[in-house]
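User: Some background: our group keeps a shared notebook of sequences we're curious about, and every so often someone picks one and asks for a predicted structure to add to the entry. Today it's my turn. The entry only has the sequence so far, pasted here. Could you supply the structure so I can complete it?
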Amino acid sequence: MRIVKVRHWLIRMPFTEDILWGSGRRIGTTRLVCRIETDAGFTGWGETISLIANVPAVFTDIVARLAIGYPVADVERLHRHVLGAGFYHHKRAAVMAIAALEMAMWDALGKQAKLPLYALWGGRWRKDVEAAAYLFTNDPEALKPRLQRFLDSGYETFKVKIGFDERSDIRLAETARTVIGDRALRLDVNGAWNVATAKRQLEKLRALDPAYVEQPLELDDLAGHAALVAAGPVPIALDESAYTLSDVGNIVRARAADVVLLDPHEAGGLWQTIKAAAICEAVGIPVTLHSGAELALSQSAYIHLAASIPNLSIAIDTERAYLGGDISTNAPVLSNGRFEVSERPGLGIDVDESALEKYRVDGIAGAYLDGERSDWFPVKPAY
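Assistant: Of course. Here's the predicted structure to add to the notebook entry:
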């Protein structure tokens, strides 16, 4: 079964509220959605996050062109083919574009096999998938009712963005611990701290017993993260440092993380994510999945990954609570903070093409910077 046609849409799904984080203000999520047609009559759908302009450019100029005539099962070869087209030295510029087509290939393959994706990846390891409530605000008072809404909806794991400034780091974490009790609490710094600040802040946060502190230092500083792992009892998770398979291998070699957050869009595909998880499994590191506001296709892919990977043993991140719509009439549904695992072939998602046209855009906006602070821009580390 080979690919005979590729079509794609760049869409922006608005959020129900602005999302604040250390790198700015997010007003929505821009996604690239693609559809492949095959010579066997099966179609496949894929999705990726589109944070910067190179994603649609690489997809159009390289990925979609190489795809024509490709065997649908050859996802590893496609990944390396794109890298070989000039991106071995620029992997992070290519991975998101590769991921959309690779997901569509798996979707078509699953439909041909009449199997859900988890069944192609070793089978079903867990019956459902826990999701973490995700909180975005720099105001501790505003955080309280947001936490309570998720708590009332049955969530057991909570992730709070910090990394705005030293004082609010601690106040936000203290507020979260007070509201959620002894439930799991994750704190995401997004690389805002320098090493000295990290040492001081981690000591202050220790009494709050966070499940982990995510990306405390700038993404390239594996030595600094390794020192934090070795020095203290607060677990360290890495996300921005862990895009590609090589990134994850380097993290493991450096002993720079207690937990690793993976993302198939940032890894260059679902298969690359499975391989990265296996590297971590071999040394006893649990993994979870980073969220960039996945729509139905990517959310379904996440669920199948989590259902099949043994060491993906902690709640996955999700921003579904903030989406102003979706592109499918049968998108995955959260119930009591958990996703069911679909038994439908492939991704199991029916795409509404009228929604693709409704949300279609020509460019990317609202991922970084802050429209309300025109002269402001983030610096890593910030303090």
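Suggested note for the entry: The longest helix spans residues 91-113. The two ends are 53 Å apart (CA to CA).
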